[in-house]
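Possible race condition, two jobs.
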Amino acid sequence: MNLSMFFPQINSASLRFVLAVVGLLLLPLTAFAETGGAAANVPELSASFYGYLSIAIFILAYSLVPLENNIHLLKSKPVLVAAGLIWILVALAFKEIGATEQAHHAIKHAIIEYAELFLFLLVAMTYINALEDRNVFQALRAYLVSRGYSLRKVFWVTGALSFVISPIADNLTTALLMGAVVMAVGGSNIRFVSIACINVVVAANAGGAFSPFGDITTLMVWQKGKVEFLQFLPLFVPSLVNWLVPAVIMNFAIPNEIPEASQEKSFMKRGAKVMMVLFLATIVTAVSFHSFLHLPPAAGMMFGLGYLGMYSFYLKKVEGRTVMADSIFGGRSDAHQNPLSVLQAYGKDIGEHLNDQPYPAFMIDKEKNVTHWNTALENLTGIKAEEMIGTKDHWKGFYKDQRPTLADAVLEDESGAGVRQHYQNKYRDNPMGGKSYDAANYFDNIGNSGAYLMFSAAPVVDENGETVGAVELFEDMTEKREEVKEFDVMERVSRAEWDTLLFFYGVIMCVAGLSQFGYMAIVSELMYNDLGPTWANGLVGVLSAIVDNIPVMFAVLTMDPAMSLGQWQLVTLTAGVGGSMLAIGSAAGVALLGTARGVYTFASHLKWTPAIALGYVASIGVHLLINGV
């Protein structure tokens, strides 16, 4: 059915040209699923009723995506519906011309393309969630905010780390992490927080542009074989220029004052470092599958998920999750005050202040005689102070058979050998430092049904630095422990961004359907034949600032224009960094708009758009100059 029969004053060629122009602005909102070659082999259906209706459905569905936070409709839902309706129209259109099998093969190809993307992203998201569970990102954040850096130094450190971390952890995760650091250090300094957040967005997007793992756009270019893994490296210098140019300009707007350092502390949980190594090993595996075995990178990523699965099994066995320390440590929040630090200022007179503390505690002298047994400990153990003071029987409050307490172990050996011997896999160094330790265990003789206790011990020293005894404090973590869940790799999988993954499916299937009507071929003709690849690829970056870089790159891959390697590198660069020109142009910017609401805003970002655009143009120029496009 041809729409010109309803509008005789507009001929088919005119309609197709108008649609192509509209497509230049709107179809970059879509995702790749079919190659340009596939689109070129389909029947001419671009002027059909089914084709026009498909475009209308897609535009309507995608117009709801930016309104997600206003209407509270997840972005995946409208595009999933649109994808289904568009493929119904594709099937009907092909049925009319007797090409039903072609529609069948086209949708199967699109599903296979999506499956590769889905599996790759699922593994990457699972690893990021696992590292978050192990407090990797929280520990880095705590370290940075406690350094006492000047605001200008924080500006450069967070920008540099964003540029370095983004190629591995992806730009969205990096932006959220560094944005949290900026807000923690900047506090009420709105001007600093706003400019530093802009710097983080630009740096994260730039860092993600020269690595297949830095952004979905680079991942898709790599998976489609347009740019090989090592061929992304020539984009390092242009990407660095893209960040440095606006950063240097914005630097002069940052005051060189030094805010008060935060005392925030956070510790990585057991297995964190191993998981970081496994993540890197998974990346190497994916690259090897693609480069040496000529297998899909997604297969290598799934292999790497097996690494994490096997290690999580080992982790449970080593920690003995039902009684071991790490699950109890997990019940203590990072902001929880270190109990030993409260007593540190009292020196050798700690014992005199034990009854003032809410924590159960006792103190022993150098000969391990009990000198103090506070009221809170009487309540916990049911043993009165007069029964303990002057004796060496403090073990009776916790164990059925005689054995060293943590305080005893601290006194026995300054090297900590006793602590390791008696509390293997159940202890950690206390944040207070020195020879102090934390440990945890289940005590079945405490209370009516046993209790999970966390306890800390440290030597007590006199004014000459001589050890005169040891003190041990306890916390009942029984209730908190019930809130602590074991590390489960399947739970990490379940916490993947399913709305995002389903959104990608809907958009990919939408454009796969639209490409069957030939619209991608029309847009490709206008952009890459009429404008030329360099100008067209520059335009791609500008469009990505308006409608997000991920769908823009998907659209380019759908068109599949005939370009040299240098031009594919150029469009990878522009799609990756062009979104930085507006706050809504990338996932990193949108994420910080939410977390720094009211401070980092669309308007505050827009003020620096000229500087960011200058960096964008400079990065293109550097690429054309050094990479011989």
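Job #2 (started ~2 s after job #1):
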Amino acid sequence: MIRVGIDVGGTFTDFVLVNTQSGEVMYFKEPSTPHDPSEAIETGLAGALAKYDLKPEEIGFVGHGTTVGTNMVIELRGAKTGQITTKGFRDILEIGRQVRPDVYNYRVVKSAPLAKRQYRIEVSERIDVRGKLLLDLDEAELRRGVEYLAREGVEAVSICFLHSYLYPEHEIRAERVVRELMPCAFVCRSSDVLPEFREYERFSTTTMNAYLGPKFENYLVRLVQRLTSLGISAKPYTIHSNGGLMSIDTVRRYPVRTCLSGPAAGVIGSAAVAAQAGYRNAITFDVGGTSTDISVITDGKPHFTTSREVASYPVKTPMVDIHVIGAGGGSIAYIDDAGALHVGPRSAGAVPGPVAYMRGGLEPTITDANVALGRLNPVALLNGTMPIDFEGARRVIEEKIAKPLGMSVEQAAYGVIRIAVSNMARAIRAVTTQRGIDMRDYAFITFGGAGPLHGVETAVECGLSKVIAPKEPGTMCARGILVSDTSFDFVQSKICSFVCEEWPSIVAEIDVLRGEAERWLASEDVPTSQRQYDNMLEARYYGQNHEVQVPLSDSLPDAQTFLQEFERAHRKEYGYALTDRQIEIVNFRVRGSAISSAKANNSLQPDGKLEEAVIGRREFFVDPDIKWVNAVVYARDRVPVSARIAGPAIIEDMSSTCIVFPKQVASVDAAGNLIIELNSAAGE
């Protein structure tokens, strides 16, 4: 059987194919098609079937990560969305929280709500904070409002009533009315999408889910049609923000859960790579065409969060904690009105892309700077299949950066890279040092098409001593999909004081969610033997505003054990515990997972001599002091295990390029990971 992992990025769509019988792993890339991401998927798979002489029926699994939802929100290309809410709460989406991203910047403009005010309908109904019915739902008023939305051509409706996480009946009744009067609309309710308290985040998440629904559905339909046209019968799975896989039917209901789809897969894949290399702790450094994504793995597990913003809109769903900045290979370098050089966050993307790609790009990018300095192959990338315009890259750097600043092309290109590296290092410190994490205790795993290219300089900037680049690092997110498990989080808000005597009722609440998880796994056709459940309570001290997550063992411990685990989690998060303070439980959470027995294998490195991996020599620019050096260029897939490569050297594979600077040494471990040992003198 062939298992396929696909990651749809802003510049390239990455593919990893694994033959589960032979263990053979195949990697390749296809330029992304932003107008219809499924087009690049079809083109890539059609090429793979022909190139590797595969039959469509041999493909038994297709998993993919996608930025379709995120891009829709960023570009505001979603459906015409309406909202039905409790009377008096029409403007929650605009009022939000009293939190400003930049307190002193009066030019900051808040993003417009995804549901415009004229399409936000108020309905008489009211539930109190304990879930008690105060005012019954006025269905006549509801029907008038829904009829108005239908006349206005609204395509999607979110139903968000106050305290519906405790009493969902009103939302369920409202959903029936909307489906009756607007049978073609996409409808979702907050008590299904996010049954948690904090109404602003719940309303925002549910409304984004509605906003994405219709067009995401169209994308999924096209994807299935394209796979079917190739003769592939396997239904595609999508990785969602918590690093798990969802079937296509689940994605249709909850598209908002895909907002960190691809990057989450990269973190899951990195955790597997770190474990292979013997590291329990790692910092992941994923540099693609448009962004740099950074995350942290501790004790073999990624860090998770339940809240973040997507294009300035709050989204509260379980997700891998990833810090994203606008710095990738396609990030545009420019000079501002004051004469200062900037890099990103604006990107040339896949189209027109960097000037060096010869697709009509006119602005200098990080990729152009690397080409101009000889760090990237000046002739072609992707194993020679993608021609490169070396002179064009140097020319745009000279015209747009070097001449205006009165410097050489080399100085200008190096300046672009140094600014990008500084931004990347600052982002790494934001998720490590600023959170009390000592980076020196963590491996530094670089991947993405441009990760290994910038990983060494970024590591030096952060004071790290070693860089790990997995095999074919430019396809790590696609590879991560093949080591991900089907999973989904079920949550219920119910604020209550923790009392030891009431522990059985707390366990009963978890059992209810576990039952939901079990039914969902059954609907996903997961065998009983492969089902796993992770139980969690989110709790806080009385008077606190935010809670900490406390994992519970599968056997559900006693009350005293929970108390000890809560204090440990609180100390880890805040540095202290208040043993005499009352504890409140806020959320009950269960994650249902399907533990897959099929994992992606690493093709072994060849035996032989290092000399057999040499494919040429090339000069590249190190820095203004060392300037140009003559380096040996190696084909990475020919480098034998345990061979040591002294810098300066360039190591190329299909998906990326690794630079080994002077006074640094690289080697390959048994799993095919490239390990670069740094020297403190490097980069001085």
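The radius of gyration is 26 Å.
Logs attached separately.
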